[in-house]
Recover the amino acids of this structure.
């Protein structure tokens, strides 16, 4: 009897070794190596080139056509996908447990099936009755929506030819397994095999497929990075679990922009799209309170206005505490250093807390000026005028740098009734003739604080 050969595979990055290691030398993580049986083909395959097979051709001789899409009837999701679901595409959806991935996808299934297309919802985590209970709560009822509770890839593939759906939704990729591989479901080998199988199904049969992927405690998709490279689109579902707002962000999209953002609100009836999130997110801004300022940001092609809050108070300990929610902590530390060095604010003995209202995370550098002004407002205890919006990137020397899409930002501010906007001077030439809103150009951080908090132009 032949000896069974085993290998150890890192469940984080896919690194392989013949012996067990406590720490993966590739991704430097501990206790991620799992023993798997090494599969080897007993027969060697010999390939012959057929004269009628594909061959290299000139790029100029290739004829192209526009991708065939169909809508999810959810405008926010269609925008993130680049205009709808592309026929034969493979989409990976990741997010924290309980964030609303299954709720969103069952709503997509209902909308697509009601339009006359067949949808197959495959679940390896829930039974048919559990899915029916959720569908009843959301008011979903369609003859073209098929539910299949199965996690064996061979059985799933056998039923696909009978149903021939237009859309497949798999919840989740970590639960399915191939009986040809001896390792347990959720291991690197099974995830790679499952994704590869559905990729072939999507491309060969022209079936659009959504697969749900679990995330690690760091917030990244579980499994090797190869999983994200294999699919056409990667969507991240973000938001605080106990907050009502949810964000869908595309981090990879072969058929559209990777900067688009969809905003939803979680309710008893499911996820409701917010077509004008700016108005809702700033509706509860307190009046005449120091440390609160309205900032302008752009996510993809959408301008958004958000409320940014700062609290500065004397520390009770030797080392002051810095907390940032919704923004990059290192960026906040950098801006606090600029405020001390370039503006002269003595905040080295102050606790500083930064928060973007609504549980939204923003990484755009145009919020720098808003962070700095909110900290200065709280430190000086001077409220910011509620009719003012600020935007601009702050450099290490205290200069205010230009931002992108300045016309869209100003248009959004004017639409929501704001009368003043602080912008970088290098953006001023483009919008100096804008009517209906007062544009206040600034060169440096000290000048911006004087204008917003001191009223000096």
């Amino acid at each position: 009897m032949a000896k069974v050969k085993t290998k150890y595979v890192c469940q984080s990055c896919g690194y392989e070794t013949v012996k067990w290691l406590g720490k993966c030398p590739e991704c430097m993580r501990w206790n991620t190596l799992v023993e798997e049986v090494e599969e080897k083909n007993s027969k060697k395959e010999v390939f012959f080139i057929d004269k009628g097979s594909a061959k290299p051709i000139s790029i100029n001789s290739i004829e192209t056509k526009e991708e065939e899409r169909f809508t999810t009837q959810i405008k926010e999701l269609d925008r993130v996908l680049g205009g709808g679901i592309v026929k034969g595409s493979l989409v990976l959806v990741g997010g924290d447990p309980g964030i609303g991935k299954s709720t969103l996808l069952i709503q997509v299934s209902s909308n697509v099936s009601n339009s006359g297309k067949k949808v197959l919802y495959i679940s390896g985590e829930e039974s048919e009755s559990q899915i029916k209970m959720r569908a009843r709560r959301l008011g979903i009822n369609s003859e073209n929506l098929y539910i299949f509770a199965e996690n064996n890839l061979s059985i799933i593939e056998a039923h696909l030819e009978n149903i021939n759906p237009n859309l497949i939704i798999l919840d989740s990729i970590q639960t399915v397994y191939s009986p040809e591989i001896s390792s347990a479901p959720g291991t690197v080998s099974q995830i790679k095999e499952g994704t590869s199988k559905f990729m072939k199904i999507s491309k060969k049969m022209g079936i659009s497929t959504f697969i749900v992927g679990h995330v690690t405690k760091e917030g990244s998709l579980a499994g090797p990075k190869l999983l994200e490279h294999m699919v056409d689109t990667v969507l991240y579902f973000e938001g605080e679990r106990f907050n009502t707002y949810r964000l869908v962000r595309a981090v990879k999209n072969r058929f559209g922009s990777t900067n688009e953002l969809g905003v939803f609100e979680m309710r008893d009836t499911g996820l409701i799209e917010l077509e004008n999130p700016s108005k809702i997110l700033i509706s509860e801004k307190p009046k005449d309170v120091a440390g609160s300022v309205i900032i302008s940001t752009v996510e993809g092609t959408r301008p958004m206005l958000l409320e940014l809050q700062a609290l500065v108070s004397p520390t009770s300990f030797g080392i002051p505490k810095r907390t940032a929610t919704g923004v990059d902590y290192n960026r906040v530390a950098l801006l606090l250093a600029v405020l001390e060095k370039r503006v002269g604010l003595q905040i080295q003995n102050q606790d500083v807390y930064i928060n973007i209202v609504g549980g939204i995370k923003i990484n755009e550098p145009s919020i720098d000026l808003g962070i700095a002004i909110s900290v200065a407002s709280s430190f000086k205890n001077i409220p910011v005028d509620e009719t003012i919006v600020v935007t601009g990137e702050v450099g290490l020397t205290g200069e205010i740098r230009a931002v992108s899409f300045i016309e869209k930002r100003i248009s959004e501010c004017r639409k929501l009734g704001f009368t003043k906007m602080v912008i970088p001077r290098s953006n001023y030439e483009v919008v100096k003739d804008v009517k209906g809103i007062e544009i206040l150009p600034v060169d440096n951080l000290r000048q911006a604080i004087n204008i917003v908090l001191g009223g000096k132009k």
